[in-house]
Design goal:
Blueprint: E1 4-5, H1 46-51, E2 53-54, H2 56-69, H3 74-86, E3 88-91, H4 99-110, H5 115-121, E4 132-135, H6 140-147, E5 154-158, H7 168-181, E6 185-189, H8 192-196, H9 200-214, E7 218-222, H10 231-243, E8 248-250, H11 262-279, E9 284-286, H12 294-308, E10 320-322, H13 325-338
Parallel strand pairs: 3-4, 3-10, 4-5, 5-6, 6-7, 7-8, 8-9
Antiparallel strand pairs: 1-2
Helix pairs in contact: 2-11, 3-12, 3-13, 4-6, 7-9, 9-10, 10-11, 11-12
Length: about 350
């Protein structure tokens, strides 16, 4: 059952063990990620890109097994949910964003779970905080002020987010402006038409230019997978963005009709694994959009552990872009502590 074949020169096929066929095997996955070294990218290899294949039925069967193969309960579930909190890119990307709303979101980022709940769970001394706060460029300054001294980075969406159709020089300048303003991570959107028309060289050059404009800031390339048509396009776009030096590949802007789904996530994790095996470079994954429940977060974490190993269960290589997700995680944590679900207003966001 072949889900994703990265290149014909690979000696082992990427396969999935199916409960009905014990003869199938899964490729060994990296159990730990290497040291914190950024992906420098590699030269564009069109033969590699063109060779990529995705078996949709195998992807769907594999994803269907995820909730059944692994479950976490009680104290283990608490630990996994706290890990999910530390991997959150807490996000506000609305047209009515204000500096006040951003400051309140940053306060939540500093203390994402109520202290009394953490104390009851014995986790008050773990330093639980989110991975980053993600905002528009106009809100970078108030976010930086509100997060001063916390060590939480500000991520800015850029390059004509969410459509990515503004003039190219303007998109590059937008990146530079956000970096100059103090953003340490930049979430860029790719030109979808490059993928849909198979212009892989144009996509590579675009992301490479974005990476250079980011400088020391980490770059997350948003594929907008709901607009790419096929899983094969998702896999190919993932490979090209990684070749161009992406630090993360990200599923969606959150503004598409279909955003982060597990089938898309599986294809992207397999692309990350193939890239790591071939080049030795590590790339992170950021699902974003539509992840609203604690169960959704657990499914993504479990998939990352199964497919890429424990090294990819850290903020350095895994993020979840969300806003409302944190509320449900808090409710689940309080339920574990008290046996009762609290009202949503007890875990206010902004």
């Amino acid at each position: 059952m072949r889900i994703f074949t990265p290149t014909p020169t690979t000696t082992r096929m990427v396969q999935v063990k199916d409960a009905r066929d014990q003869s199938m095997r899964t490729l060994p996955r990296p159990e730990r990620a290497p040291a914190d070294v950024r992906n420098p990218g590699v030269a564009l290899d069109l033969d590699w890109v063109q060779s990529v294949r995705v078996n949709r039925s195998a992807v769907e069967r594999r994803v269907a097994t995820l909730p059944r193969r692994r479950t976490v309960k009680k104290d283990w579930q608490v630990a996994w949910l706290l890990r999910a909190v530390t991997c959150l890119d807490l996000t506000t990307l609305s047209g009515d964003d204000t500096p006040g709303r951003v400051r309140r979101l940053c306060a939540k980022a500093r203390q994402p779970v109520r202290l009394d709940v953490l104390e009851g769970l014995g986790a008050a001394d773990l330093g639980i905080r989110v991975a980053a706060v993600c905002v528009y460029h106009a809100m970078v300054e108030p976010a930086l002020d509100a997060l001063a001294g916390s060590g939480i980075p500000v991520a800015a969406v850029s390059t004509g987010f969410p459509a990515g159709l503004s003039p190219f020089p303007q998109r590059v300048q937008e990146i530079r402006a956000s970096v100059a303003a103090g953003a340490r991570e930049i979430d860029v959107v790719i030109t979808r038409s490059h993928v849909l028309t198979g212009r892989w060289d144009a996509l590579y050059d675009e992301v490479r230019a974005f990476r250079e404009a980011c400088g020391a800031a980490h770059i997350k390339t948003i594929l907008a997978t709901g607009e790419l048509g096929t899983l094969r396009n998702v896999a190919r776009a993932s490979v090209v963005c990684m070749m161009a030096g992406a630090d993360f590949i990200k599923t969606s802007t959150g503004k598409e009709g279909v955003n982060a789904t597990l089938p898309v996530g599986l294809v992207m994790t397999r692309a990350i694994r193939a890239y790591h095996e071939r080049t030795g470079h590590t790339v992170g994954l950021k699902p974003a959009g539509g992840i609203r429940s604690a169960k959704d977060a657990l499914d993504w974490l479990l998939m990352m552990k199964d497919e890429l190993g424990d090294g990819w269960l850290r903020p350095r290589l895994f993020r979840i872009g969300a806003s409302t997700l944190l509320t449900d995680i808090e409710r689940q944590l309080e339920y574990h502590l008290t046996g009762r679900y609290s009202a949503v207003h007890r875990q206010p966001m902004t």
